[in-house]
Amino acid sequence: MAKQKTGERAETTSKMKSAWWEDGVRFACQGSGKCCVSHGEFGYVYLTGEDRTNMARVLGLTRSAFTKKYCTKTDGVWHTKDREGSACIFLEGKRCSVYEARPMQCRTWPFWPEVMNAKSWAKEVKAFCPGVGKGRLIKAEEIRTALAAQEKWEDELKSGL
Length: 161
Ligand code: SF4
Prior knowledge:
Helix content: 25-40%
Bound molecules: iron/sulfur cluster
Number of domains: 1
Number of helices: 5
Radius of gyration: 15 Å
Distance between the termini: 21 Å
């Protein structure tokens, strides 16, 4: 799954003022679906209440029906149920079946605080994501915006929103 690492946030955006990505990063999703399959330390597709509401809507379900059918909780945090083979339950072939309502962690990938250090970027992103190095240059300001959105979302997850 576009799988969120279960560990703690490595650095906050405010500590990344002079980051290695200050000149931007070339990235464009290649539709490989690789970020929707578990790999190594990455775990679940976590969902806030807002994520569940949005996903339920595109599937024509109430939020409670969606949650009952597709979600489970670990350590008090909602995430999608696992599917055998470790792919996200919403991955159909290489395509996300709820793309327009995909959760925040899928929208902000690969600009997550825990991988935006040079070591993690090389090992956990560049090594397997074919979108790295492709497409337009994503400017530092856009990366900061994605990181801030991801941090806010992680805080909401932890507070049970
Ligand atoms: S919700 Fe969609 S984009 Fe996110 S991991 Fe699942 S299939 Fe991939």
